[in-house]
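pipeline/complex-builder :: batch 7 item 3
reading input block
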Amino acid sequence: MVETALLLPPLLSAIILGSLYALMAMGLTLIYSTIRILNFAHGAFFMAGAYIVWWLNTPESATRLFGTMIPVSGLQLPLFVAVIPAVIIIFGAGVVTQKALILPLIRKPNTLITTLVATLALATILESVATVIFGGGRFSYAQELVVGNVRLGELIVTYVEIIQFAVAIGVLLALYLFLKKSRIGIGMRAVAQDLDAASLCGINTQTVYLLTFGIGAALAALAGFLLTNIIFLSPSVGATPLTIAFIVVVFGGIGSVPGTVIASYVVALVQQYVTLLLDPSWGLSFAFILMIAVLIIRPRGLFGFKET
Amino acid sequence: MRLRTIFLFVLPVAILSLYPRVAEQGYLTYTLILILAYSIIGFYYNMLLGNVGIPFLGPMVPYAVGGYTAGYLALNGYNPLIGIVVGSFFAAGSGFAFSLLSNRVRGLYMALYSLVITLFFHQLIVRSDIPAIFHIFVGAIGQNNIPDITLGGFRWRLGDGVAYYYLGILLFVGSAIFLKILLDSRFGVAFKAVRDAEVYAASLGIGIFRVKVIAFLVSSFFIGLSGGFLTIFYQAVGPDILETSNMLLFFSMVVFGGLGTFFGPVVGAFILVPLNNYLTPYGAWRLFAWGLAILFVVLVAPEGAVGKAEHLLRGRSIRGLIGSARAWTRTASGTSTS
């Protein structure tokens, strides 16, 4: 039997990881609840955001690693500063995607399938661009975000983990307040509830759509930056987080905000404890099994709402 | 109607059959075999996506089941042709099992559910710590050195695989005719009814569950058939066929040609498979060009190449005008698949 002291560290990492999953999945949820499409390019935005930070941060000397020159900006911005332009750029990319790609498609029949293939194609394009520019190698940031750790009794928590947790929770809370209090946020929720009624009330639905997609993409970029502090950066780095985000949104019910948050922590908990009790390679598999089981019992996830 | 069939089906097939006698062989034969096999997948994947309207993202599962079964049987001394046939039945079984598991799942949930099941299957077969699974699937390496077909006293891979080419044409023609018969039968009508108005169809006495089970059974059978055929042709099969990029190929093939059109997937295969094959030397640029091509078609003609062509031709006659009016009322009454 596993000792009780061993059960605590996975709980802690599940809380941290769950917050990051929630941050990643919230972008999908936001876009789905408002625009009613699923963004398969979410993982590509995740990857692109992390690459922009890397590009702004890496000193020139690190680019001869693979024998070939890999372009860097040479600005050597600190990671905290570099993340700001990255998030803004990906926000812009999201707005452009919505304007140029999604908007023409949601007015035509078969929206579900055409937007699916369009966002998948966009993800393919972004991934290939990253491969062309940076090569297929695996990178990590030149320095750690912050060095050091704190001891909480038996537990050791690194500062990086604390920052990941704090930023994820802070951004999610800010997003919550934005949706609850601000005029634009209220407009976004109105569009999510009833598109026609919202536009009758004078809400500019086009602007809401653009903003929603931009914010969703920006959340992916931020999650990309936070996670690539602990995992390697490569053109396909977005695939696994995207898969987890899919599990999370389906598990919680597509488009449901509380469902997304709860499902994020459940998936992270399952992954961490399976890793502890069984084997690390089973972690994701059990998340898959969990989702399949939930869908068989509740075909719309835990908190999913009926399609109108 | 009959003239159209001759022009669209009999003539191209005749030209394809004569090709090895008149032209130089080599990579083109290989590409054509791929196009034929992928067209079969496209036919039946399109049936699910376009005709029954199920946003299914797991066509790689029946493909892999058919492929691995055929490979396993061939490796264990059975005739590879028997392997292909048995593999198709196993694939049909996998489709049947999936349709039971996904009975109540709709729309986007269905899309993600089938995608996640595919990824789960991928994770399972690459494991090397479960002896039974490793014995059948050979982990991340996949089955290799699968024996060639030797029916008729010679190895089929000789001479650029022209024998495979003819088998491919045979399977292509057979599956196309079967699909045509199926879509023109009561089931074809039931498929469309389920797609356009599920509740209404149920109230008219169409067994939704039964129709979907049959759709999954039939499409998985033929996708598995194509998978088994390609496995024997490649003499290898690996877990990479379950990757999402492969799904994107099948999926875009159908959307490229036109959802719900009969010849759409074939057109998609004839454009996308060569694009995929001949751009391989350019590395990452291949995916770039490929993604752009798909985006272009989706934006310019969301109804697909064949759908667009039909749309343009339709305006030329009175019958066409009635047809477009009917299509307009269909869209106006808001019965899109979602």
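note: Chain B touches chain A through 48 residues (CB under 8 Å).
queue -> next item
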